[in-house]
């Protein structure tokens, strides 16, 4: 299976950290010799840049000037820019395993990754891991750095949280599992404070969760949870969905990207104490605005009185699949 480590190596090659104006080469070879001098050597005046070489400032300008052929695109991530600039100012820091100490945010999007491998543990300072739009079906928590605060797995194929919750990162504040294959109630038991003591934000949108009271009973243990996304699940179609959540989770600030104001919380006060209102049914309202391409029935009614012309009847059926 294609791993996160393999995708990261391809990412480094794409950045060109060893190519001009980054890395070490004929454009800055004297700097390599200067750094080999002993620290005991008295510091003299700043030496002029030798002929044929470039100063660090000039090399940085080639990365930052948008008219430069070596400039990063405007929408590049802060991590891309950081690594490129480090490759200019201190290229020796990017050699060997030392590069893993610099990475605090790792974003690998839509690269066909299937496995979160053990190599991810080399990122000992990693705080943010974004692996959206890949092909990941399971995540082994033993392969995640303990320093992790953000884990985003949106648009994958995760259907089981057991391996992820075996030993989850204790400092995690955001867990993104939107657009996956989670089904309840077997997975709801992993969404408690026992596994996520510091979770502030949770995205479970567009899965197949159906048991609203059961899920809420688990989420209510997350004392730091302030942001929750559940839209796109079958349980979100129940008539009392939003009101029940607002009243059941008093520390929630945002539900499905909509802020919860005090007036709304007061409106649904005590709704959580009436479980009989949570029915196992959905309410869907469909309105048809306009239909095009159908014959107009009025055109067939313009028959003269006493005419023996045939009467043509048309009928139409509109169906919806859920």
Automatic annotation (TrEMBL):
Keywords of this entry: Leucine-rich repeat, Repeat
Classification via InterPro entries: Leu-rich_rpt, LRR_dom_sf
Entries under Pfam families matching the protein: LRR_1 (PF00560)
GO cellular component, one term: cytoplasm
Keyword presence, Repeat: yes
PANTHER family: LEUCINE-RICH REPEAT-CONTAINING PROTEIN 51, NISCHARIN RELATED
Stated name of the protein: LRC43 protein
Species of provenance: Toxostoma redivivum
